[in-house]
Design a protein that fits this description.
Keywords: Autocatalytic cleavage, Hydrolase, Protease. By secondary structure, this protein is of the alpha+beta class.
Length: 310
């Protein structure tokens, strides 16, 4: 029986001690701890890595603190367009959705695409039609409304500006969520979900639902979920690049992550981070930004929760 492990993230960016009150820090720490332990509980009961990452991400989607599901940011039109993806490291099967509206838990839809369709990526109206056929839960517009998200949108809706999850000025902008896990059978899986950028236009899609960029899993190497400025992560094919360094150059998980996040991305201005896990239960959570909301739990070890740089 393999050692179980799970890691989650809730976004990366300018997150410093000065930007969070003690109360805010306590709230976010509790939310991360709850989500990672929910996923780990699935693993300890013999559940699959796929089930564990879905459970952890669902918890984060249901929490308005993070930019996914219920906490998704507003588009230029004042709507919510969400992306999500899931990948199975055992079979290399994957499912993803982009630009979906009114779906309560986009990660559930991503899994349905993977398991109940012949496709990998569905978008917009078609993805929503598929969700109806699968009997997935929809939510009214009011469900996704959050006062802080609305106020940040009001500040930029009349401009061409788009806002990333975290800036020094707006510490309430929290981000893309994700989870990676390895189960008792030694299979890994990854899942990512996001509401994208505040004030985004033209049905912009980021790296989260792009297999190989924001999400990837392969039992031979690792499972990866990314968070940060999506355009850079797509151009660098970040998630797959970590896997490739392990498979073709023999790098360790930590070496591969450091090469991609701390060197490759930094060279051309890509800010953010990722979480990754191997079939052996090794975890890496590198980031080149001021902070990254993250948590992990390995076997019967204590739960780890981090926000700032060490």
């Amino acid at each position: 029986m393999h050692k179980t492990a799970i890691a989650i993230h809730g976004g990366a960016g300018t997150i410093t001690k000065a930007s969070l009150t003690e109360e805010k820090e306590r709230i976010y720490t509790a939310a991360l701890k709850e989500a990672v332990e929910a996923g780990h509980s699935v693993l300890e009961k013999g559940g699959s890595a796929l089930e564990a990452v879905e459970e952890a991400v669902r918890h984060l989607e249901d929490c308005p603190l993070f930019n996914a599901g219920k906490g998704s940011v507003f588009t230029k039109e004042g709507k919510h367009e969400m992306d999500a993806a899931m990948m199975d490291g055992k079979t290399l099967e994957a499912g993803a959705v982009a630009g979906v509206k009114s779906i309560k838990n986009p990660i559930k839809l991503a899994r349905a695409v993977m398991q109940h369709s012949e496709h990998v990526l569905l978008s917009g109206y078609g993805a929503e039609e598929f969700a109806r056929n699968q009997g997935l839960e929809f939510a009214p517009e009011a469900y996704f409304f959050d006062k802080l998200r609305y106020e940040q949108w009001l500040e930029v809706r009349d401009s061409e500006a788009i806002i990333l999850d975290h800036t020094e000025k707006k510490d309430e902008k929290f981000g893309t969520v994700g989870a990676v896990a390895v189960d008792q059978a030694g299979n890994v899986a990854a899942a990512t979900s996001t509401g994208g950028m505040t004030n985004k236009r033209y049905s912009r899609i980021g790296d989260s639902p792009i297999i190989g960029s924001g999400t990837y899993a392969n039992n031979r190497t690792c499972a990866v979920s990314c968070t940060g400025h999506g355009e850079y992560f797509m151009r660098a094919v970040v998630a797959y690049d970590v896997s490739c360094l392990m498979e073709y150059k023999g790098c360790t998980l930590q070496q591969a992550c450091e090469e991609v996040v701390m060197k490759k991305l930094v060279k051309f201005g890509g800010e953010g981070g990722l979480i990754a896990v191997t079939a052996a239960g090794e975890i890496a959570m590198p980031f080149n930004s001021e902070g990254m909301y993250r948590a992990s739990k390995v076997a019967d070890q204590d739960t780890y929760v981090g926000i700032y740089k060490k």
